[in-house]
Structure formats: C-alpha cells, structure tokens
Design a protein that fits this description.
This protein is mostly beta strands. The protein has one helix spanning about 375-395; strands spanning about 10, 25-30, 40, 50-55, 65-70, 75-80, 90-95, 95-100, 115, 125-130, 130-135, 140-150, 155, 160, 165-170, 180, 190-195, 195-200, 215-225, 225-230, 230-240, 250-255, 260, 265-275, 280-285, 290, 295-300, 315-320, 325, 345-350, 355-365, 365-375. The protein has a 26-stranded parallel beta sheet that branches. The protein has a six-stranded mixed beta sheet with strand order 20-22-25-28-32-31. The termini are far apart.
C-alpha cells in the first residue's frame, strides 16, 4: 500500500473488512504500508461508529508522524507487530483515539508518542494489551489517560514523560487495571491513579511528575523506590514501597506533604519487615509533614526469612514536617499483634505471641517506629528472680 505524503486513511462503514459487530468498523491492515506523515481518522461524514485498524505487517516502511483522530465513536489503532510501526518518527494520538500496544516479542518500542485525552471509549490514549516496554519519550499535549487491558499486564515507560498536563491511570471498560513502571525523571504535572499500580522508580531512580500524586480507587496502588516530587494524597488506595510492583522491599521517597485521610476505613499502607540489618519497607518524607486519621489503617507483615527477635526495631515512616495525628490510633503498647482484645488500633502488626514477645509502637513528631520487646510479665519475673537471688546472697553472707 503506497500512500502519498500526507495521505488520510478514513474508516467508513461501507469499506469495513469486518463489520460483524453492529456499530463497529474494523480493518485488518496486513499489507506493507509506505508513505510519509500519514493520518488515520474516524471522524469524517459524522461517523459515530467505533473504529479499529489493526497493523500487522512485519515490515511497514512508512515514515514521519502517524496521526490518529477519532470521532464520538472512537478510534483504536492496534500495533500487532512492532515492524508495523517502528519506522515512524512519532505517533500522535489525538482526541477520542487509543494507540494499543499488542505486539509479540520483548523488543522495546522506541518511537516517541504525543498523547492527549481519555482515549476511545475512555480506554486511554495509550493502552497496553501485553506487557511491553516503551523506550521512546512521551509528550502530553493535554490531560491524558493511560491504561492496560488486564490486571497482570505491566507497561514499562523507559522514556521521559513531559508536558504541562496531568496523567490518569484508569480504564472505564474494566474494574481492574494492571501496572505502569516510571523509570525516568519525569516532568508532566499531576498523577491520578484511579485503577492499577503506579510504580515510581526502579532501584532508587525515577520520579513522578511535578504535581501531586493522588490514589483514588479501590485497586489503586503506588509502589517503587523512586521519588514522588510534590506530595501524595491517599483517598482510596494503598502505598506499597519497594520495586517489583511493591513485592520487593524498599524505601519510597516523597517530597512534600503526605495526606492519608480516606473518607472511610481503608488500608492506606502496607509494610514488609526483614531483619533490621537488611532492607525493609519504609516511607520517607522530606520537605513535608504527615496527616493521619482513624480511617487510615496500616498493615505490617514479616518477610518469610525473618525470625522475631527482642530489640529489633524498624522506622516505618519518617518525615521532617508537622505531624497531624488526628484520631489515628497506634494501638495498645506491649501487645502481641494477635488482636485478641481488639487492641491493634490503626496498625495491624504480626502476631509474635508464640515467641513470648510484644510490640512497642512509638509515633513521635517525626517518625513512626515499631520495636519488638520481651513480654512485660517475663521481664517482671526475671526481675523477681534477680531480686530473690540477691536476697539469698545477702542471707548467706
């Protein structure tokens, strides 16, 4: 298919190669496409049908910018083979359009993207249908939504993301969205995670944008070991520090205020603890304070390799600004974690009763610390035994 420079591919009902689903237009573009600065549209003649064009050629030779624009029905351009798009210098995704990454193999896509809008059917201007990596830079030309098409799918964004606009991770067509990994120092503005996991950074490198990060969905997660550059608000969602989408242990760094104030009782942070000499989960806040409420639960678990030991302690969170504790409850001191008497408060700690140990939790002005100590009755018995031993020594003398 040899196209003249600036040619427009217009999807229409009468030209569809597959129109078995009412209200949908689908083209299978398997032949080689040649040309420069090509546009694909689905907005001519008042067309309101859903439009999909699948690019499956292994050796397209087109160059320049591929521009996509949909109608109210929306336009999907699906890359089923990396050879169908890797000769382009840019892919420009405009209103009501979605670029779908769905090619086989593990080769990273290096073509830069320009994105705007929530995509066709609000499925995202960029959607991953398989776990793949984008090495090309992304420029947001308007507020933009990105998504995946399954809970296990991971989109790794190895290019920088810039533009004076916000980014939203969401998908109206499914209740669960997978994950995105942000590996570079990004300069877009706000990040709203409505569904899915936003891993910020890998190995301590990588950032969010310049604005606030907000979790606002039942499946929303922020993870990673990078840096959130302008605060975090958790309305609904959970913090899981550490790489590998929060499965690994590590420190998540946040510059600016952290507000853990959901409107209903929810888990807002999860921590996995290993031996203090190793790596455990931590939230580290600089140039900002921490706001808590009694709706903000935290859940702490041990790494499988750890054995509870008296004297071990962990800083779960640290901040250098003001603490607003509100009605947040750290629970009873010297509790086992079994919660037999509902004494855990807002911090669910591992049960260490079997080791004869208890927890001492300290919420100070700049840190939240959990310490393992001997059970108080054991200490009291040890004290009585020591006193009795001293008395016998005095009597024998």
């Amino acid at each position: 298919m040899n196209l003249s420079a600036g040619a427009v591919i217009d999807l229409r009902n009468s030209s569809s190669t597959s129109n078995s689903v009412p209200g949908r237009i689908r083209f299978a573009a398997s032949s080689v496409i040649a040309g420069n600065d090509i546009s694909i549209v689905n907005n001519q003649g008042g067309n309101t049908s859903f439009g999909l064009i699948q690019l499956s050629s292994t050796a397209n030779t087109w160059t320049g910018t591929l521009s996509m624009t949909g109608s109210s029905g929306g336009l999907f351009v699906e890359a089923l083979n990396i050879g169908a798009v890797n000769t382009l210098s840019k892919i420009d995704v405009n209103a009501n359009s979605t670029f779908v990454v769905n090619y086989g193999g593990s080769t990273a896509l290096t073509v830069p993207l320009e994105l705007t809008g929530t995509g066709a059917g609000q499925r995202g201007a960029l959607r991953f249908d398989q776990s793949r990596t984008l090495d090309g830079n992304i420029v947001l030309t308007g507020g933009t939504r990105i998504s995946t098409n399954g809970a296990s799918i991971v989109g790794t964004l190895n290019g920088t993301i810039s533009g004076n606009f916000g980014l939203d991770i969401n998908h109206t067509g499914t209740t669960v969205v997978g994950s995105f990994v942000f590996t570079k120092n990004n300069s877009f503005t706000t990040l709203l995670v409505s569904k899915g996991n936003a891993q910020i950074g890998v190995g301590g490198v990588g950032t969010s944008g310049t604005g606030l990060v907000t979790l606002n969905g039942a499946t929303s997660v922020v993870s990673g070991t990078g840096t959130l550059k302008n605060g975090l608000t958790v309305n609904n969602g959970v913090i899981r520090a550490g790489d590998n989408l929060g499965v690994d242990r590590g420190t998540l760094n946040i510059i600016g205020a952290v507000n853990l104030s959901p409107t209903a009782l929810r888990t807002v942070a999860e921590f996995t603890l290993a031996a203090p000499s190793g790596i455990s989960d931590k939230i580290n806040v600089t140039t900002g304070g921490l706001t808590l409420t009694n709706n903000a639960n935290m859940v702490v678990t041990f790494d499988a390799s750890y054995t509870p030991t008296a004297g071990d302690q962990w800083t779960l969170a640290a901040w250098d600004g003001t603490l607003t504790q509100g009605t947040f409850d750290t629970g009873s001191d010297f509790r086992t974690g079994a919660n037999a008497s509902a004494n855990e408060g807002n911090i669910d700690l591992p049960d260490i009763s079997g080791a004869g140990l208890v927890w001492d939790v300290n919420l100070g002005p700049n840190s939240l610390v959990a310490i393992i100590v001997p059970e108080p009755s054991s200490m009291a018995l040890a004290g009585l035994a020591f006193a009795a031993f001293g008395l016998r020594r005095r009597r024998s003398a």
